[in-house]
Amino acid sequence: MTQPVPSRPQIRFRGRSFMATVLAPLPPVADWLGELDALGRRAPAFFAGRPVILDLTGLRLTRADLEELVADLSARDIAILGVEGAPPGVLGPGLPPALSGGRPAGEVAPPEGDAPAADAAPDAAAPPSPARSLILDQPVRSGQTILHLEGDVIVMGAVASGAEVIAGGSIHVYGPLRGRAIAGAAGHAGARIWCRKFEPELVSIDGLYKAADDLDAAFRAQAVEVRLVEDAIRLALLDRG
């Protein structure tokens, strides 16, 4: 008697959206890399944990030029996820893949101001710059990125799925947190994340992160505090009493 062959589970495909930062080099590329270095001095953690797309639209690069550019970015700890607008025949083995069809999500404003010279002596008479909080009275909508490396970010409403809040200090969300919350992005391990309703796509503090699939489901939809404890992300319920 022939035994029935057990049915195999069907292959399942799941889509998942991620926010990416697009870098668009301008000629001359050497000068553009110098500006990128200046940004790195002002905000060392600006690209931490960020997927990056390289937009080559309008640039006339050979394969050797592109290999050198990707290596220069890698040396700055900027990993390229994919390339848009590459000239025909330039991409291939050993280079990031071609990407297309991305939906624009607005510009991400880099931190302003010049970094002090490395060899400049601090002015003992000058008082330390106070941390500045950014208060948002409106919700952060899908596709928006809020970047504030000078202090805390306080969101009076919700952070929607597909939105991203990046703070040099802590993040306070007085509504649901459904997008990405990245606190301590300027190297502040003591930063925390507080929200009234915990449903994030990702939380991160000082470069350590956990995505939604890695978060304890018991905390979902609760009022939660996120902090670092011994280099690990820890969640705790907020006291509602």
UniProtKB/TrEMBL annotation:
Residues 95-132 are annotated as: Disordered. InterPro entries: CAP/MinC_C (IPR016098), MinC (IPR013033), MinC_C_sf (IPR036145), MinC_N (IPR007874), Septum_form_inhib_MinC_C (IPR005526). GO terms for biological process: cell morphogenesis; division septum assembly; regulation of cell division; regulation of cell septum assembly. Residues 97-124 have a biased composition (Low complexity). Residues 11-74 form the Septum formation inhibitor MinC N-terminal domain. Residues 135-234 form the Septum formation inhibitor MinC C-terminal domain. It holds the Pfam family MinC_N. Keywords: Cell cycle, Cell division, Septation. Belongs to the MinC family. PANTHER family: SEPTUM SITE-DETERMINING PROTEIN MINC (PTHR34108). Cell division inhibitor that blocks the formation of polar Z ring septums. Rapidly oscillates between the poles of the cell to destabilize FtsZ filaments that have formed before they mature into polar Z rings. Prevents FtsZ polymerization. HAMAP family: MinC. Interacts with MinD and FtsZ. This is Probable septum site-determining protein MinC. The lineage of its organism: Bacteria, Pseudomonadati, Pseudomonadota, Alphaproteobacteria, Hyphomicrobiales.
